[in-house]
């Protein structure tokens, strides 16, 4: 019997393939199996980013998310469907690993920062050797695209989801000097109102498709409240010590 | 007269040279002048990380910090000395830029996230064209070294400095689900006490020299209160939704 393979979470960065690290390219190309998450009928952002780097002999293992629009996100059935999906994805990768093949699981951004990778990782880390290649986070791509210095001196930065209730958003924003708001979607009006109450709206910047084609940067004050795409963020920079 | 050069902030990542991005390597090698911050008598971490990539024909411009131990950090003279230093560093780089030479200013981690780069950037961005190459943040290097999934679902992450007063630390930690504490230095006892009050101590992990030689990862509960080196962080992972 061959020695079991290793599961490697490979962070690909914010979208521009040039923002992959040297280590990510090596880890990706060294693994016999390249796995990635994707929506049904789509190639998936991670796979697209890795396009120029996958070698002809490598096997590909797309992990296709179950329907995400038919069932509402807060429906318990959604959680069940996702749970079954991650369990199944983990077992599929365990098949390769058990055969002695290393698996590089591609991750948008950084593998351990809000990544789907983590759900597979926690299901396999006790059974197989693992490795993590950190990546440039989506938020770094966004504030670089905006050329926006984010945090100075002893600034505290909060990173939060725009899906939170308004009062929680305000409370958390007020605890920080700088903020990144993810998962904006249809929540822009509520997020804007919370940023106003926290005194951050005037300096906030909206960024979508950072480092990708379609990149757009504008002051939040000049952005309307229309729904935002998945790849979008709001940034409120800190104003700390500047010698 | 030649066209003025461009100032490029090049994020090098957490320390392991392999965690430089493809774009960082290109930007670094394309610039006639490579600048970096360093302490007197030392090469500096950024320059060390870039060691294998600087080409023989490139000019180097070390920007040497003024004394940082003779004057206490909270002494107004410290701020003045630093301010003069950044102004002087900016003028020095302006010299190259004015001659039409691009300058790659090397940055540990990510250029716009607590970076010295920002102090030079804000002094030159009105006068010269600029560019930013984002990098893998030190904290990503740390939680990857610890193989620690940091944030799940709608977790809020706070990144803060261990130099803050205890009450502020507690307040900010309580506003979040996951935390990164930087600037630990001699503040470990206070930080620990704040993490305990916020209910995060048991799951906190201490990491030093992540991705560098000397890397060390341990549960914070097993770490004593001795002073921590500059390259150290405390991580408290979130416990959010895990389908």
Structural description of this entry:
Two copies of one chain form a homodimer. With 243 residues, chain A is an alpha/beta fold. Chain A has two domains: 6-136, Tetrapyrrole methylase, N-terminal domain (Cobalt-precorrin-4 Transmethylase, domain 1, 3-Layer(aba) Sandwich), CATH 3.40.1010.10; 139-236, Methyltransferase, Cobalt-precorrin-4 Transmethylase, Domain 2. Helices cover 30% and strands 21% of the residues of chain A. Chain A is built from seven helices and ten strands. The first copy, chain A, has helices spanning 22-30, 45-49, 76-98, 117-124, 138-145, 166-174, 188-197, and strands spanning 6-11, 33-38, 59-64, 103-107, 129-133, 157-161, 178-182, 205-208, 216-219, 232-236. In chain A, strands 3-2-4-1-5 form a five-stranded parallel sheet, with helices on both faces. Chain A has a five-stranded mixed sheet with strand order 6-7-10-8-9, with helices on both faces. At the A-B interface, helix 1, helix 3, helix 4, strand 5 and helix 5 of A face helix 1, helix 3, helix 4, strand 5 and helix 5 of B. Strand 6 of chain A pairs antiparallel with strand 6 of chain B.
């Amino acid at each position: 019997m061959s020695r079991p393979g290793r599961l490697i979470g490979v962070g690909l960065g914010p979208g521009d393939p040039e923002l992959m690290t040297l280590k990510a390219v090596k880890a990706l190309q060294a693994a016999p199996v390249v796995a990635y998450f994707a929506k049904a009928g789509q190639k998936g952002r991670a796979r697209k980013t890795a396009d120029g780097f996958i070698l002809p002999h490598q096997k590909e293992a797309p992990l296709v998310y179950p329907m995400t629009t038919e069932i509402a996100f807060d429906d318990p059935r959604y959680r069940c469907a996702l749970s079954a999906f991650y369990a199944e994805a983990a077992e599929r990768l365990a098949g390769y690993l058990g055969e002695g093949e290393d698996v590089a699981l591609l991750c948008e951004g950084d593998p351990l920062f809000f990544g789907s990778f983590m759900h597979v990782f926690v299901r396999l880390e006790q059974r197989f050797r693992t490795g993590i290649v950190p990546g440039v986070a989506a938020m770094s791509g966004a504030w670089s695209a905006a050329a926006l210095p984010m945090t100075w001196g002893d600034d505290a930065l909060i990173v939060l989801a725009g899906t939170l209730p308004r009062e929680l958003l305000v409370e958390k924003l007020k605890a920080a000097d700088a903020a990144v708001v993810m998962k904006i979607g249809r929540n822009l009006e509520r997020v804007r109102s919370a940023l106003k109450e926290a005194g951050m709206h005037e300096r906030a910047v909206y960024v979508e498709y950072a480092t990708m084609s379609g990149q757009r940067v504008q002051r939040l004050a000049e952005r309307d409240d229309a729904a935002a795409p998945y790849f979008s963020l709001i940034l409120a920079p800190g104003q700390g010590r500047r010698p």
